[in-house]
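U., I forgot to send this yesterday:
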Amino acid sequence: MSLEAFRHLSPVVSLYEPPSSAPAPSHGDPTTILLLSWADALPRHVAKYSAQYTTLYPGARIIMIPSTLPDLMFRSRATQRRRVAPAVAALLADDASNGSLLVHLFSNGGAKTLNTVAHAYRDATGATLPVAATVLDSCPGRMSFQASMSVMTVGVPKNPLIRLPVLGLISIFLGLLRLWKLAGRPNVIDRVRTDLLDKSLHLTEAPRCFIYSEGDRLVSWRDVEAHALEAEAVGWKVERIKMQGEHVGHMRHDKLGYWDGVAKFWANASSK
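Result:
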């Protein structure tokens, strides 16, 4: 399934609705899937996940929200909440409070988007986002110079006349963030990790599945496992799937094992 099957609710939010010929969701299947991509993900890469979900759960809607580097690093919280407002409206239209909302997010960008949607949902309803289960692929990490540099230079041209000045500006920016951290102020990734554990935003009844690997050079497996332990300590049921592969590349490395893990995780979560 290509992303052309999605209807744009806004420049940011897209919605896939199954055709009338699709079977109704089976008992225990998610009725809505919130798919939150990593920062600056290519549409053709995200489409591989949405396509697999239409196979696993053909009767489910899919709400897709991409992430960009400005979303992760620069845009104000108020601006980001306005940008995801159509997703909140789509969730309310389907009455996601019936316990059939599956969230699948990728990297720190997707994790921040989930927090933004949860904030916007609470602002609109006064309630906690009614997630039934969450899959976290390759996150959450921690801020580090090398990982941040790798993320922020993905789209920078190789031409040294362009690349070197850009690298210099990014280095200055990351240095300022380091000074901010030394002054005792949380950086953007610290806030992502903290908000993921905020019980006014996220239901502890909704189990979490962390998919990660030691081969990830952008998000350390140690940081993921540390967060999983923190989530368990404050009430979340956690599942860990440690795989082979690179950052957001686990499905590509072992497609069968990846989706088998996701399906079993949802089946266990929805049977509770």
